[in-house]
């Protein structure tokens, strides 16, 4: 609405003769549909409409002498889409006062005069026209009940005025022209003040009789009063809260100024700078770090505390001052203390303890233990992580552990650059901050499971940190400073070596943890696992009794893996079920015997490995990530129609090649080994390795498969002997890995005679004495050394 229309509106409102008494209203008028809300007699309303669509209607109304236009609400989505069926029955007759076209739209000022009812449409499309009849306003004095309603309406409006000042001006204008003696216009005026929806207002417009109209209007006004009160309360609450916050802010600022004047307190920036200065006084920063910190402190002193750059600079200085520059813990240089710490926390693993003590002894002799990188390799549950903790305890150093398994982002190792939002230092800097010294023991768990992605290669990022020649100047991307990691003792753990990159593996000192035999598991369960589970359950030692045969049965039937993690889980399950019995009132001690294990743990998970016998059947030895295992190999001649060789048992490529080498060697030397040379000429040989669902690979079953083929060709069964070794085409026996695990597997299977490669003799002699006890071992350099050991000697028939 422009200023001219606004002035005209005020003039019309202040005119006391909006609807002139006795004026003859036309019986036929043009209609203008509206969709927003209806209009009431006594109002001056500015309208805004589309010029192209409604210009014809406005012009038609202006051409008439009376200039009357009927405004009526329609139930259509838009006024342009309205048809006669959308028109409401009652509308308001208005006189057009001013029309102005602005930017393709019509601004029309109308004066609302009187209610009318559509009797019939003359034109059913725009411009609409219809024959109408009017409802005259009552001229006599209102009855007492009507006058009472009018006073109630006025009083309600007066209550609205303090809550919303906008009502005050409109009420003043209305009361200047009318009062309680004009209840009809009062009701219409009151309805127009409310924010009721268009359908409620249309009901008021259609209420021709005064009493129902007054009732509806008073209801709408009361609803408006409740809404205004709620809005006022909300506004008042918000204003009070803002005033309180502003008052507290000003008081706080005044208090801060007073404290600063008295020297009691400093501002945030000064307090931060002094805190950093106090930290720096206790550190021995390098020259580069000192220069960088001075620059950042100068910058921090100039920045506003609310700026983003202030927070970034403050965090950067905070990280630098929290690192242990020049701060070391004093090493415990006592070999006996180290030996006791290792023996207290670990049973067995004598070769591992020996290697660790040798490493520590060199440092003790020198007077300090230099930084180094130890790699502990072994199956899950053999105690790699706990050994790392014991090393830290033996030396009296801080211990920090983090896992690199699944890590795919180089920034996890070397940090993010400060240009990124949310940048942080890498894991090594975080570890140094947590440890608080420059010479902690840092454990990198699961280093064989580190990943790589488009974010970078974390394994390559580790090369700098784990290289004794480089890590004295380790560069973190976030700090962008050289930090000395050369005094850190790194202990890494892995389950296998295959997935560790060669350059990284080359930087580490390898210590293998092969696993535990049943006797070692038994002692570990008695000394460590059972007491720990009883403590976790809140039980005393005597409340549950598990004897030695029962623990041995658990180890052999339920926890045959190389480590003791599964063993502890099974003991924990027994303890939990025993606690339930105790709470149910069963007297203590709860005795768990071998014959009760199935009730506590269910059927055994592991059963005795089946010993297959007969010609063509040989027992081999294999290494798995869970430790050692025996492996039966079967060979049969399925038919003699054609020559062929078939392999089954889910064998890998290397194992298939090993089988083909064994087949070729036996076929080529059959007569020399005492077999029929024609056996393989037309024989179809099928070689199978049982447990077909388990993938198998590697060259160590070479002599085993060759022995099975020789046994099949000679129709002689193999003795109770197990073997392992790689076979070449020329019959040479090459060394293999995992000797300790394979010996343990043979002991578990009850086999006491082994054939091993000659070049593995040294590894066998390193196997602990208690593991080797009772074995008869043959070492072979060629397959010719193996053949005489395979078969039982035939008894010669006595002659007379």
UniProtKB/TrEMBL annotation:
It is found in: Cytoplasm. It comes from the Bacteria. Residues 29-225 form the Lon N-terminal domain. Its EC number is 3.4.21.53. It holds the Pfam family Lon_lid. Residues 211-286 form a coiled coil. Induction: By heat shock. ATP binds at residues 378-385. GO terms for molecular function: ATP binding; ATP hydrolysis activity; ATP-dependent peptidase activity; sequence-specific DNA binding; serine-type endopeptidase activity. This is Lon protease. The gene is lon.
């Amino acid at each position: 609405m422009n200023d001219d229309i606004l002035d005209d509106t005020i003039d019309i409102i202040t005119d006391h003769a909006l609807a002139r008494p006795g004026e003859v209203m036309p019986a036929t008028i043009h209609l203008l549909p509206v969709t927003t809300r209806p209009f009431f007699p006594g109002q001056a309303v500015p309208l805004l409409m589309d010029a192209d669509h409604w210009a014809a209607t406005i012009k038609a109304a202006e051409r008439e002498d009376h200039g009357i236009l009927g405004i009526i609400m329609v139930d259509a989505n838009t006024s342009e889409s309205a048809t006669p069926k959308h028109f409401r029955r009652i509308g308001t007759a208005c006189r057009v006062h001013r029309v102005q076209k602005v930017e393709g739209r019509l601004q029309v000022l109308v004066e609302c005069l009187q209610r009318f009812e559509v009797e019939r449409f003359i034109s059913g499309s725009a411009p609409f026209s219809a024959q109408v009849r009017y409802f005259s306003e009552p001229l006599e004095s209102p009855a007492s009940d009507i006058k009472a309603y009018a006073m109630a309406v006025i009083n309600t409006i007066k209550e609205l005025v303090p809550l919303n000042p906008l009502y005050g001006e409109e009420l003043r204008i209305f009361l200047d022209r009318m009062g309680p003696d004009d209840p009809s216009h009062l009701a219409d005026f009151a309805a127009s003040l409310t924010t009721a929806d268009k359908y409620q207002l249309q009901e008021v417009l259609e209420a021709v009789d005064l009493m129902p109209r007054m009732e509806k209007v008073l209801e709408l006004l009361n609803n408006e009063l409740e809404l205004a009160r709620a809005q006022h309360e909300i506004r008042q609450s918000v204003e009070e809260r803002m005033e309180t916050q502003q008052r507290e802010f000003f008081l706080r600022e005044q208090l801060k100024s007073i404290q600063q004047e008295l020297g009691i307190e400093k501002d945030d920036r000064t307090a931060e700078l002094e805190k950093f200065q106090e930290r720096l006084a206790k550190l021995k920063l390098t020259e580069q770090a000192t220069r960088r910190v001075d620059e950042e402190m100068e910058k921090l002193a100039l920045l506003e505390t609310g700026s983003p750059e202030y927070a970034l600079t403050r965090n950067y200085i905070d990280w630098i001052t929290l690192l242990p520059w020049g701060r070391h813990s004093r090493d415990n240089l006592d070999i006996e203390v180290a030996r006791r710490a290792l023996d207290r926390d670990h049973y067995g693993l004598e070769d591992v303890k020996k290697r660790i003590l040798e490493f520590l002894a060199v440092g003790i002799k020198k007077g300090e233990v230099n930084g180094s990188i130890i790699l502990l390799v072994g199956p899950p549950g053999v105690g790699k992580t706990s050994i790392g903790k014991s090393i830290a305890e033996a030396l009296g150093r801080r211990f920090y552990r983090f896992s690199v398994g699944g890590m795919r982002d180089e920034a996890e190792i070397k940090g993010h650059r400060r240009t990124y939002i949310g940048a942080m230092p890498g894991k090594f800097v975080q570890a140094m901050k947590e440890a608080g010294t420059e010479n902690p023991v840092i454990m990198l768990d699961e280093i064989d499971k580190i990943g790589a992605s488009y974010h970078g290669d974390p394994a390559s990022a580790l090369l700098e940190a784990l290289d004794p020649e480089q890590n004295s100047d380790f560069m973190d991307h976030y700090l962008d400073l050289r930090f000395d990691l050369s005094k850190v003792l790194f202990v890494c753990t892995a389950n296998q070596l295959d997935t560790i990159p060669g350059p990284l593996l080359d930087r580490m000192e390898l210590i293998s943890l092969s696993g535990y035999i049943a006797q070692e598991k038994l002692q570990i369960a008695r000394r460590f696992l059972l007491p720990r589970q009883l403590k976790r359950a809140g039980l005393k030692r005597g409340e549950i009794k598990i004897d030695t045969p029962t623990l041995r049965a658990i180890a052999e039937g339920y926890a045959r893996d190389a480590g003791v993690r599964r063993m502890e889980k099974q003991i924990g399950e027994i303890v939990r079920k025993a606690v339930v019995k105790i709470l149910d009132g069963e007297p203590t001690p709860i005795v768990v015997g071998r014959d009760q294990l199935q009730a506590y743990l269910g059927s055994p998970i592991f059963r005795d490995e089946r010993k297959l016998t007969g010609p063509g059947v040989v027992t081999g030895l294999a290494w798995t990530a869970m430790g050692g295992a025996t492996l039966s190999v079967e060979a049969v001649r399925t038919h003699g129609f054609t020559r062929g060789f078939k392999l089954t048992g889910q064998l890998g490529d290397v194992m298939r090649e090993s089988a083909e080498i064994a087949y070729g060697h036996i076929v080529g030397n059959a007569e020399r080994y005492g077999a029929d040379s024609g056996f393989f000429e037309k024989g179809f040989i099928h070689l199978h390795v049982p447990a077909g669902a388990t993938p198998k690979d590697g060259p160590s079953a070479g002599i085993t498969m060759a022995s099975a083929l020789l046994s099949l060709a000679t129709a002689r069964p193999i003795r109770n002997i197990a073997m392992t070794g790689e076979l070449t085409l020329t019959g040479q026996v090459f060394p293999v890995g995992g000797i300790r695990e394979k010996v343990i597997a043979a002991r578990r299977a009850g086999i006491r005679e082994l054939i091993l490669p000659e070049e593995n003799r040294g590894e066998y002699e390193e196997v602990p004495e208690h593991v080797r006890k009772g074995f008869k071992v043959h070492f072979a350099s060629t397959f010719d050394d193996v053949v005489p050991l395979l078969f039982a000697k035939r008894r010669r028939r006595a002659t007379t």
